[in-house]
Amino acid sequence: MSRRQRRSWNIDGPRLLPRNEVHVYAYEQGCMIAMLDGELRENHVAVTMLYVSPPWRGSLVLRDMLAALKLRYRHVVVARRDASGVSSGA
Asked: What is the pTM of this model?
């Protein structure tokens, strides 16, 4: 990132919640701008949902969120969902 493109958000997480849920959030000026939800499985975290607002900064925010997640959990995968919305792993 160049000096002009310094990130203006803070990353919170990853947090391990009950039922092996893993969450990472990004905040800017006290407002949540992104969230990443996942599930801790045997040897990896399966990312089940990502959201960034506004979407134009998505790749930068998501890169920082994934980096925070990978500091704690080495293996991260994106879970695929079938037509019913059920996560099938990766």
From this structure: 0.74
